[in-house]
Each structure stands twice: as C-alpha cells, then as structure tokens.
Amino acid sequence: MRLELRQSARVVAAAVASLSRYDSVQLSTMAAPAFDAGAFASSLVTSAVGQRLEYRASCSSTMTIADEMLRAEGAGAAHGLVVLADEQTAGIGRRGRAWQSASDGNLYFSLVWSPRAQGLAAIMPEMVRLNLAAGVAVVRACADAGVPSARIKWPNDVWAGEPARKLSGTILNFNGCDAAVLGVGINVLQADRPAVLANATSIASELLAAGGAAPPTREAVLATFCAELERLMALSTEGVLDEYRACDLLAGRSVRVHHRSREEDDPRDYEATVLRVDPQGMLCVRRPDGAEQALSGEEVSITPRGV
User: Fold this and answer.
1) Domain co-membership, 18 together with 65
2) In the predicted model, what is the mean pLDDT of residues 107-134?
3) At what angle are helices 218-232 and 120-144 packed, to 10 degrees?
C-alpha cells in the first residue's frame, strides 16, 4: 500500500471494507453476553497491547474515541490502549464507507500504537509493518479459535471457509506524527448467513459448518489478537512479511482489479494474476500483457476468482 500524505495526516492503506452493503459482516441478531473485562484481563499475556481497556456498550466509533484519548494523553501514555464497544452507530470504514456494527456478539475495537522509531522516515516502515501484522494477528486468533481456514485477502480483510467469505477487516490511520489508531472488526458469535449478506461469515459459523464445536468467547479472541500483534511487532518487516505470505489468500490467484468499487465497473478495470505483497505492503500483479504492476489499497479493490 502506498503511503500517502492526506492533508496533515498520512494514512497507511486503510483497509476495512464497508460492513454494510456488499461486504457487511453484520449477520445476526443473536443475543450476546456483555464483554467481560475481567476475563479478558486474566487471559492477557502482553506487556502493553490491551493492558488498558476502554469499554463502551455502545458508541459512535471506537476509532473516534481512541483518537480523542490519544490526543488528550499523548502517544507514549496511550500506547497499547484498546477501545472496545459492543455496538458502533457511526463506524469508520475503508474509502469513506460506513462501518455498521450491531450488538450481535462480534468484536469492534480500536488500538493505539506509538512507534518506537523517531522521525517520519523511520516511522513509516513501522506503520507498514503494523498494517501487515494486523491481518496476521487476526488469522492467528481465528486459528486458535478453531478456524484454520482463515486467510488474508489484501489489503486487510480476513476471509475464511469454503467458499471463502469475509470474517474480519482492519483500518489503520496514522496521525502523521507519532502514533496510529488501528481499527479492527472480527465476526465472532454471529451464526447465520442471510442471503443478502452471503459474502460474510464468522468464527461461530465456520465452527458450526465444521461440526458444531463451541465458539470461543470474545474475550479469548481479543486476548489472542493482542498477544499476536505484540509478538509480530517485535519482528522485522521481513519477518512479518514472511508470516503474512504464509496466510495470503491471493498469491498465485487470478483477480479482478477494480478502480471504483467491486460493485461498479470502470474502463480501467482488468484481470490480473497476483504475484506477491511487497515490503511496502503493495500488491504486485501481472497484467494480461505480461507487465508487472504494484497496486495501492487506497486506490483499488480486488475480487479474487475461484475462492
């Protein structure tokens, strides 16, 4: 993903597709227990990530709250803070889309990350690493919960199942100075698939399809995510990229490259074969004429073929 300066902030490959319309992950209205902060804390094994939890039953957007707390406290003090809500009424999604998230047993949270590096030139590679690591951490949390089919669909969705459907998405906003807010949505407990939302799934849905194992708690999934993210961020960019590539849904596949959206055709759209994700987080593809091209997640969307 190309790192672009937008007004006063540089945004690193914002990656959550809308949780409404085509790729919504809002699937059911099943009752879910309130998030148990004590159970989460007892499961947590990190030194920083998730050690502070700001929980809301409902809010407009966890990213907005996390950003406000970051500005009030400063990057160092807010590092590792997790803001979690059972429901968001004005969530923020990729490329200006709404992120609808009902109170149906999923995880909707935002995490503050303060880079260890100093200076923009040194910070930006860490932001790329964080963007890559987020998807890997979701995949590891899904595997720990009993869903080994979870894979990263560039730029930052996680799909699972057969056929593959969207289970999670993330978005990363860098403040252009000293910290970023990572927004994450993971479908955990919703257990049905209405036809209108047939492109989404959840951990509970995949476990049910595999034989009906009991789904994990949201607290356990979040604790695993936090531990994996902290572990991954201690690696080099190449180390994170190795793990990302091992979880990559798209490598070697044929895809459709969309310049507007997956729902809207554009004369610039084309078929391509995915080669790899590069150290800058760009998706490298081979065009029909044989030319290679590096794509930014802020400029295109991708539809994989045959998944």
Assistant:
1) yes
2) 95
3) 140
